Amino acid sequence: ILSSAMRIIAKSGERAASLRAVAAAAGVSHSLLQHHFGTKQGLVAAVEKMVGERFSAALTTAAADAQVASIEIASRLSELIAGDAQLRSYLRRALLEATPAGQALFARIADLVVAQLEQRGDPKTLPSGSQLAWLATEIVAVNLAGVIFEPILARTLGKKPFDPGVVAWRT
Fold it and tell me: Between 12 and 70, where is the model more confident?
């Protein structure tokens, strides 16, 4: 159900993700969706939660220091995004339309990166406050830029930026 909702949101935006449209795409009844999610907003919130949880799981690192952690986080972010075309489409729409969900997801991912770096960093060398926030935002922005510019990058570079070989080379 959530995958069907994410696919509809990615293709046509949140407005198109009515409970009836998602029920039809998922092959379930409208009343089942109403029972589980209540409203369209409840369904959209469940999709946002699912996407956020996928990023939370992917961005957890056991690296011993902040520099290694930042490289590992960037690599895991690339791998997560590369492995799911539907997720990339969802992210592209959310980020380009600057939806509240897209803004909240970007902030959540940046906060996850900050938390990982704080846990792994040497307080003497790790930036703090707005400098740390900027570092985390850069890591996230660089990786999500490929999502936003995917069609342009593919035409310009002659290769799809999320093909496994390209991702391995980039990371």
Answer: 12
